[in-house]
Amino acid sequence: MKRCLIVVGGDYAPIGPVEKDDFVLACDRGYAWCAREGIVPDLILGDFDSYPGALPRELPVLRYPVV
Which of 7, 10, 16, 28 is deepest in the core (most CB within 10 A)? Predict the structure, then answer.
């Protein structure tokens, strides 16, 4: 079964098994949690106010203004 996993910021918690057909969406600091677990998201999005680090150039990124 294909799922969409949305990984968000907040306190760290293990993400759990990611299946081959899952679509992984990392939101803001959620990218840091994906990277920590070795998970490559399909899409990264956010205003990145809670994640100031570098983002991979090979992945699609949607940036939104900080409000």
Answer: 7
